[in-house]
Amino acid sequence: GSAARGSAAAPPRTAIGLDLGTSGVRLMAVRAAADSRRVVVHTDEVAWSDDAGARSETWVAGMQQLLARCPPDVLEATASVAVSGTSATALIIDEHGRVKRAPRMYNYAVSGSAGDEAMRIIEARAPKGHTVRARTSTLAKLLAWHLEAPLSPTDRLVHQADFAATVLCAGGAPFDEQQQSSEDPRGLVFASDWHNALKLGYDVENLRWPGWLLDILSDVGLPHEVLPAAVLPPGAAAVDGGEALRKGQRSGGST
């Protein structure tokens, strides 16, 4: 129509996916085409060794490197960013987002006296056949961490995708007191999703932390606040990406 004459059309909205894997991180940018198809407009990847891939700073640096290499027109049109990590890869942070316990990867199996005690506690309360009854489960890792050396009341568990995406949206710098969220008295909110939270014990049918899990935490002296503050459907917008991601939104996920 005449109203559009002489003005530039808005660029198609783009979605960026960042997949944190065992050997590196991959970026893919997808744009909607006029015929409702999805067109891949950019791909890139950064490789790392197994040792480097177990460090949280490697995840963030890899994502930042990929975004820095992304064409400006792709970034400017980006409306959302999804970050996927390996399920059951987790770490412990404090209320300001600083890492307190280094990541334990998806295939890390708890062992020793702390690991054995963690499994005894889980097997006494968790339903038979539940994913948390594996030594590689996120719940087993959480309990073993606490039994090895008690966590602080303000410590919390976050999954790989939760941590990497939220730090990325905050610019990749260490968090400080000025960056705390007023919505959460514990500090910054690290939201998780159903897939990641499943191996921590989340009830994906009733969408809540089950009573048996909360009882386990109470029994070992862990506050319930150690769990992710919010658990959202996979793909739901979890946080505003801010200037770091050209006003995009971030959603989390797992592989």
What features would you highlight for this structure?
alpha/beta; 255 residues; Carbohydrate kinase FGGY N-terminal domain-containing protein; disordered N terminus; Nucleotidyltransferase, domain 5; 8 helices; 29% helix; ATPase_NBD; elongated
Per DSSP E runs of 2 or more residues, the count of β-strands stands at 11
- Provide the gyration radius in Å: 20 Å
Largest sheet: 6 strands, mixed
What is the CATH superfamily classification of the domain at 90-158 and 179-232? ATPase, nucleotide binding domain
Number of helices: 8
Question: How much of the residues is beta strand, in percent?
Answer: 25-35%
Low-confidence stretches: 1-8, 173-187, 246-250
- Roughly how much helix do the residues carry, as a percent range? 25-40%
Describe the structure.
With 255 residues, this protein is α/β, with parallel strands linked by helices. It has a domain at 90-158 and 179-232: 2-Layer Sandwich (Nucleotidyltransferase, domain 5), CATH 3.30.420. The chain has helices spanning 50-53, 56-69, 72-76, 112-125, 138-148, 160-169, 194-198, 211-220, and strands at 14-20, 24-32, 38-47, 78-85, 90-93, 99-104, 156-159, 191-193, 230-232, 239-242, 248-254. Helix 2 packs across helix 6 and helix 4 (112-125) crosses helix 5. The longest helix has 14 residues, at 56-69. InterPro entries: ATPase_NBD (IPR043129). This is Carbohydrate kinase FGGY N-terminal domain-containing protein. It comes from Phaeomonas parva.
Write a brief caption for the model:
It comes from Phaeomonas parva. By secondary structure, the chain is an alpha/beta fold. The chain is built from 8 helices and 11 strands.
